[in-house]
């Protein structure tokens, strides 16, 4: 771990005031007081229930060199560095502390409401098959040259992110691909990162519990592109923005892009677009028409949304100078992504699918795909909505589930601090709307809900278990338990 003089760390940060004696070498960065070690800077981040400066005393007792606080924090009686924005200060200081690691990587960021995880997986497959040593940061896990790490969050806090980039460099990683959430963009987690390629999958309503309205959410997503800087990175490579032309907000984003753009689409011609798409139980097939030529693809991934994800990956591959045949070989080798329209197969004569869909748009996409795969069977959908999250999407998801499903079983997702029955009531507002369908039952225990769906499934049916996907836990008000939709579904299938 490096040691950096504190004066170098705090240069040019528009510091409001330094209180007390702040001198010596910084040995690390921390934002949890219990994890502070001697010589660390402690960043007192704002929280939803309390403020980080409340832990300043504990952090100082644990050896913090100084506490970085907002300029409106009270007097704390310990050495402090007051700044306008603690999160931005942490991002800038982390870049200095780890010597700007993103400048030494070919960095690819993917943002959007849905499709980030699959798109990053596909891009990572391209990089690996090309022979690059790659790193992947996202919702399911972090992969660094084959090493798998548990994810801290979709996009880690700025200090953790820069530490991961630094670790990648020590592992000789040359290319990194990462999911970039709206929270990360709003909270400066990627501030100072030098992105060479930025990808937009789509933008639909989500996280309105965090952003004040949709316009604020859209503005957060746009930051990844508007902050890309000049046409060429400090590494001398051209920067490229890859954008979904079919998305309603395409023009809004492109107007803010200062670098070269590559568009992709299904519904209209673009720099990269799909012609004659076919989706069935085996996957999807289409001809990719590109500025570099055409190529026929047969992917193991199902759903129109995965055609979009594949087109985005193709555009990135071409931007990286890959040949179409290389791209074809890479994408056709991908068998699937954990928790993304993932089939649970135990020899049954009906299809069971687990998917992470937890927004109205993503749920509609997977339900449409499931209906397209049905022959004479029925679609049985198990889903709930997360607690302490955007309440506005709950009735929308209920209405969509009722519209496309023959039977819905409403259950708990991750209720967190909310009453599961209250969450269900919000869902039912949409599910019971006229024309929404309405054939449903409620089973608050998620394992029981999955069991009911499996027991009622008959030959040719599809059981879709939506909301949690790859997750192997369930969060309640007072505890977090081990729970996997895939494992529970497999157990019930084997018992039936």
How many helix segments?
A: 15
Q: CATH topology of the largest domain, anyone?
A: UDP-N-acetylmuramoyl-L-alanine:D-glutamate ligase
Mean pLDDT: 93
Helix amount: 25-40%
The strand count comes to 26
CATH-derived architecture of the largest domain: 3-Layer(aba) Sandwich
**Assembly state here?**
single chain
Our measurement of the CA-to-CA distance between the termini, rounded to an integer number of angstroms, reads 54 Å
Rg measurement, Å: 24 Å
**Residues in β-strands, percent:** 15-25%
Cross-sheet strand order for the largest sheet: 11-10-9-12-8-13-14-15-16-17-18
Number of domains: 3
How is the biggest beta sheet arranged?
11 strands, mixed
Write the CATH homologous superfamily of the largest domain.
Mur-like, catalytic domain
Please state the overall shape, judged from the principal axes of the Cα atoms: globular
- Uncertain regions: pLDDT < 50 for 5+ in a row? none
Q: Can you tell me the CATH class of the largest domain?
A: Alpha Beta
Based on helices, strands and strand pairing, what is the structural class? alpha/beta
